Here is the input.
Amino acid sequence: MSFESLKIGKYTIQKPIVQGGMGVGISWDKLAGTVSKEGGLGVISAVGTGYYEDKHYAKKLVADRPLSEANFYSKDGFTAIINNARRICGDKPLAANILYAINDYGRVVTDACEAGIDIIITGAGLPTNMPEFTADYPDVALVPIVSSAKALKIICKRWQKRYNRLPDAVVLEGPKSGGHQGFTYEQCALPENQLENLVKPVVEEAALWGDIPVIAAGGIWDKKDIEEMIALGAKGVQMGTRFIGTHECDAHENLKKVLLDAKEEDIQLMASPVGYPARGVRTNLTELVEKREGPAIKCISNCVAPCNRGVEAKEVGFCIADRLSDAYNGNVEFGLFFSGTNGYKLNEIISVKELLEKLIQGE
Here is the structure.
């Protein structure tokens, strides 16, 4: 089976593979730029851009961490990442992933538009007012992430009524993805919430609004998985964890090694200050948190609104901004390492070009 290109707004992605946005610093300029250059859609994560180039763009640090959302989501850092990715991929389509749950969401979306991003992908909450921040940039394609047909319907109704606009595509994320889930712990295990059972109803809902392309995500690993999703009606897939196993991935070598060494049983759901369960690798940090002996929680960066300035972090036992940035810096003792359920299958580091060839042509 050969794959057709993926259309998102005015942009055509030659290979229907979207690289998932992964922060802090897993998918920045090198990974996203190379994926776009090689014909997929590279996605820059907006999370933690104040850490880029050894915190060069963070204007104020406390305890060597970017102070407040203005520095954690550094506009200058984000712009530099987008510009450097652009040097790699030229005029090929390039996307940014901006979580709806972050503090300063609207400002960060505008920052992305001003820096010349083509496509914005948003999950972690229902982005019902997303078009508000891109009104001056009609060419920027908007792609919400949903976990049900009902969520897509709510977004389409609101966007059409308020902004006379509809999503240019939608990412449907099932409960096998890395990082935050759109489901409770219990819902993650239910058969009706598995990706293969969600695609058809979401594709049917998308068709009612003018055939919005559906991009399936969460647990997709190889060509066979891609074929299965396209047979169900998806126009493309999004994959995050598998791209960690590439030379161009911006992650620290220690982070890649944690994934390479992980066994199937090491990858589990855990509580998160964002309010949704998150999936990652059990490490030293997980054990410390369970014993309530984790690192001190100081809420320096004020990263996500649901955390309520560290209240939820204290509840679950860790600060997500600090622990993800520790993973980015290669700190295996205190780092938080997100992974999809299939992360244990990573067993080598290859080039993005080689990975995309494997995904399109088969292993």
About this structure: The two ends are 14 Å apart (CA to CA). The first helix runs from residue 29 to 37.
